[in-house]
Design a protein that fits this description.
The chain is α/β, with parallel strands linked by helices and 255 residues long. The protein has 12 helices and 8 strands. The chain has a single domain, classed as Aldolase class I (TIM Barrel, Alpha-Beta Barrel). It binds phosphoenolpyruvate.
């Protein structure tokens, strides 16, 4: 498969960082630094930063994403945010199934699937995160874990919808730990995700889906990770909070 047929996507996941004024400051630095990017550039920011983020990036090549959404249209779900709320603001992407949501907030593949379907139905592009725990890797069941997550998270997602979905391979042991998967490990699992998509949909569909790597990707290791044929971009946590580092990763993806 010719990698150039897929769009490289670099997305920042700010997690619970940056107040609205800090978000404005960071995006004001990011926008000029990535203006010549030859890849998709996204900043996924806390809900309270969405408004200022959309305003600050208006008319630029930086797109804005949320970090989660609920599956119901509305109702008695205190503290939750619906896809309609995000759409009306101008949000285009949403991170779903991040390992921190799974680990600390009890999210399951079933709820990730519900959120994914709701996001797609609303016209949002989900970035669906999958990844194994260190213990699962050590027990040599990485492929089983990933295949299960992909099958469950994408259950009932149509071929047309999966083409609007980004998959982020994020080994849990590499998130926020400074331990990056080697480029070979990232390629091996991203390739496995693609072959799983080929079985579930078709090779053509699998070849068209963007699969990111995430887990301590930074300005020093991005080049090597992104050079791999099945690694189409990155979901970046810590390094997305520093404009120069994020811009350097965007530059690596633009080559
Ligand atoms: C993430 O939060 O998705 C992530 C990959 O974080 P970090 O880059 O900090 O490991």
């Amino acid at each position: 498969m010719d990698k150039t047929k897929r769009k490289a996507v670099i997305a920042g996941n700010w997690k619970m960082n940056k107040t609205p004024s800090e978000a404005k400051e960071l995006l004001t630095a990011i926008v000029p630094a990535v203006k010549d990017a030859d890849c998709e550039v996204i900043a996924c920011v806390p809900y309270v930063d969405l408004s200022v983020a959309i305003e600050t990036t208006k008319g630029t090549n930086v797109k804005i994403g949320a970090e989660n959404c609920h599956w119901a249209e509305k109702g008695a779900f205190t503290g939750e945010i619906s896809t309609g709320m995000l759409k009306e603001m101008g949000v285009e992407y949403v991170v779903l199934g991040h390992s921190e949501r799974r680990q600390y907030f009890g999210e399951t593949d079933e709820t990730v699937n519900k959120r994914t379907k709701a996001a797609l139905a609303a016209g949002l592009k989900p970035i669906v995160c999958v990844g194994e725990l260190l213990w699962e890797r050590e027990c040599d069941i990485t492929e089983e874990v990933i295949a299960r997550q992909i099958k469950l998270d994408l259950f009932d997602v149509t071929e047309e919808e999966v083409l609007n979905t980004i998959i982020a391979y994020e080994p849990v042991w590499a998130i926020g730990t400074g331990k990056t998967a080697t480029a070979e490990q990232a390629e091996e699992v991203c390739g496995f995700i693609r072959s799983t998509l080929a079985k579930l949909y078709s090779q053509d569909v699998a070849d068209a889906v963007t699969i990111q790597y995430g887990g301590s990707m930074n300005d020093c290791n991005a080049d090597e990770l992104l050079s791999k044929k099945d690694v189409d971009g990155g979901l970046i946590g810590g390094a997305s909070l520093v404009a120069e580092k994020f811009a350097a990763i965007v530059k690596a993806a633009s080559k």
